[in-house]
Design brief:
The complex is a heterodimer of chains A (about 300) and B (about 250). With about 300 residues, chain A is of the alpha/beta class. Chain A folds into 2 domains: about 160 residues, HUPs (Rossmann fold); about 110 residues, TPP-binding domain (Rossmann fold, 3-Layer(aba) Sandwich), CATH 3.40.50.1220. Chain A has 8 helices and 16 strands. In chain A, the strands form 3 sheets. Chain A has a 7-stranded parallel β-sheet with strand order 5-9-4-1-2-3-10, with helices on both faces. A 5-stranded parallel β-sheet of chain A has the order 13-12-14-15-16. Chain A has a 3-stranded antiparallel β-sheet with strand order 6-7-8. Chain A is globular and about 60 Å long. The termini of chain A are far apart. Chain B has a single domain, classed as 3-Layer(aba) Sandwich (Rossmann fold). Chain B is built from 6 helices and 13 strands. A 9-stranded mixed β-sheet of chain B has the order 9-8-7-10-6-1-4-5-11, with helices on both faces. A two-stranded antiparallel ribbon of chain B has the order 2-3. The chains are: A alpha/beta (about 300), B alpha/beta (about 250). Chains A and B meet through α3, α4, β5, β7 and β8 of A and α3, α4, β7, β8 and β9 of B. β11 of chain A pairs antiparallel with β9 of chain B, so a sheet runs across the interface.
Chain lengths: ~300, ~250
């Protein structure tokens, strides 16, 4: 059995979550190949070759794949699919975008967002925003799977896999990249940070998120937000933690002025330690917090910053 | 331009989900159901395109038993012109849903198909992409802005690090993210009017598609409970606990 794992990257950096997706592949069992599809992405290829337990790194370095458009990448993966029984990708924005396209082209279902591997055809995945956990057995011969990285531990990077250059260059010609508008930040990526501090509706406005910045700087934390804060226009959507935003599981998650709606809990309840700061002692967030502090955040945050 | 909007009937997002005692599935008996929130955003976007003069007709389609006609009526009240129900008693996989929708796309020849990015029950996030693959169309998933421009549509997408804009040839598939728009409430006269708008019913079995399931649901369990911890009295105590008890800061 062979497994193809799609590498998430931005042409310059391999996303660390890929290492966790490789761990899911190892749990399935079989020869693991990685696929790097991009353009001028040698640094990613170098990093991919060091991923432990990998047989080959397939590299499709071509302008057609520069922005990893779903139409082109799915065609590429389809061209390679014959050699693999399992095709895996991390459930990040690139994988979520093109993988169902691969599945449909192969005429198979996709098992989305798995958090556990029971066997080569049976997987565990959250449904209803994580309020129920389903165990599903795929009946298709080929399995197309996206992996929730937070549920797996990263593999080591002490390998030296063979790198194989591919000549594939399919451009479907029906879509084009126009522009990227990426949030500039000195802080770690939300998905990769070991500490996350998030603000909710209790922050009252976008300016008050500055109160989180000093603490984030001291802890090396990423800053997140609840959907309520995003909906209220305080902060952009890429900061959203929750069912409809990012799923995070850092060592320390600090929820500030967040009541703890089901949809927010779905995005952070696998964090190792959860701290809740909220002035409402009845807020549901306290039911999942390891440490709760019932206090006004406008008093608490400056004090916390000074004492860290 | 005709816009096709597939929608799904799901558990209302405010309802707390319960797993059946025999762990066979989630218990939906006597539970309030609603149009999937992302599908509602899709309907709203189609209505806005029509109000802007870009769309000429909006067709809503849903696949399910007779009860999903309620959600189709909701879509009609919000501004869809007519509706199609593909009737089935089975819960179908996303791939089979996409195959049925492909048949509707073949019949209706829409210029744009707008779907929710995922349903809040199965959380699969795949039907739109699958429909795009089956129809050979380009896709703009997780859209926060949709601008039709001649024979192309520019879609701004919510991606991990921020936003990405792509230009797609029409016809194309768009899936909605939360910030695309804020759906309106249906007005009473519109709800009354919706009752008289056309709603065609077609049988899923009449499309000549093998709809057999692609996966078996073996078990559904409640998630592991996380128990509440302690309430600390002060910032000092919090910092002390994080340092010495949890050991997550130094």
């Amino acid at each position: 059995m062979a497994i193809l794992v799609y590498v998430e990257h931005d042409n310059s950096e391999l996303k660390a979550d890929t290492l966790k997706t490789v761990a899911a592949a190892q749990a399935i069992g079989g020869d693991i190949d990685l696929l790097v599809a991009g353009h001028n992405c040698q640094a990613v290829v170098d990093a991919a070759a060091t991923v432990s337990g990998v047989n080959k790194v397939l590299v499709a370095d071509n302008a057609a794949y520069e922005h990893q458009l779903a139409e082109n990448v799915s065609a590429l993966v389809l061209e390679l699919a014959g050699d693999y029984e399992h095709i895996l990708s991390t459930a990040l924005s690139v994988g979520k975008n093109f993988m169902p396209r691969v599945a449909a082209l192969l005429d198979v279902a996709q098992v989305s967002d798995i958090i556990g591997v029971e066997s080569a055809d049976t997987f565990v995945r959250p449904i209803y925003a994580g309020n129920a956990i389903a165990t599903v057995q795929s009946l298709d011969t080929k399995k197309v799977i996206t992996v929730r990285a937070t549920a797996f531990d990263a593999v080591a990077t002490d390998g030296s896999a063979e790198v194989v250059a591919l000549s594939n260059a399919t451009d479907a010609g029906i879509s084009a990249h126009v522009s990227d508008e990426l949030t500039e930040s000195e802080r770690p990526d939300l998905g990769a940070a070991s500490v996350v501090i998030s603000g909710g509706r209790g922050m009252q406005n976008g300016d008050n998120f500055k109160l989180l910045e000093g603490i984030a700087d001291k802890l090396g934390a990423a800053i997140g937000a609840s959907r309520a804060a995003v909906d209220a226009g305080f902060v952009p959507n890429d900061m959203q933690v929750g069912q409809t935003g990012k799923i995070v599981a850092p060592d320390l998650y600090i929820a500030v002025g967040i009541s703890g709606a089901i949809q927010h809990l779905a995005g952070m309840k696998d964090s190792k330690i959860i701290v809740a700061i909220n002035k409402d002692p009845e807020a549901p967030i306290f039911q999942v917090a390891d440490y709760g502090l019932v206090a006004d955040l406008f008093d608490t945050l400056p004090e916390l910053e000074s004492k860290l | 331009m005709k816009v096709l909007v597939p929608i799904k009937r799901v558990i209302d997002y405010n309802v707390k989900v319960r797993v059946k005692p025999d762990n066979s599935d989630v218990d939906l008996t006597n539970v309030k159901m609603a149009i999937n929130p992302f599908c509602e955003i899709a309907v709203e976007e189609a209505v806005r395109l029509k109000e802007a003069g870009t769309a000429t007709e909006i067709v809503a389609v849903s696949i399910g038993d007779k009860k999903c006609q309620e959600q189709l009526r909701t879509a009609l009240a919000l501004g869809a012109d007519r509706a199609i129900q593909i009737e089935t008693e089975e819960t179908l996989d996303s791939l089979n849903i996409a195959k049925l929708l492909q048949k509707i796309v073949d019949e209706e020849q829409p210029g744009l198909v707008i779907l929710g990015k995922q349903s809040i029950d199965s959380d699969n996030n795949q039907t739109g992409q699958m429909l795009a693959a089956l129809t050979g169309m380009a896709q703009g998933t997780f859209a926060s802005e949709v601008k039709v421009d001649g024979d192309k549509v520019n879609v701004t997408r919510e991606v991990d690090g921020g936003l990405q804009t792509v230009a797609l040839n029409l016809p194309a598939i768009v899936t909605t993210d939360l910030r695309l728009n804020e759906p309106r409430y249906a007005k009473l006269p519109d709800i009354m009017k919706a009752k008289r708008k056309p709603l065609d019913v077609k049988a899923a079995g009449d499309f000549g598609i093998d709809l057999s399931p692609r996966a078996t649901l073996l078990k559904v369990a409640p998630p592991a409970e996380r128990s509440a911890g302690v309430v600390v009295e002060s910032v000092d105590e919090l910092v002390e606990k994080l340092k010495n008890e949890a050991k997550v800061i130094s």
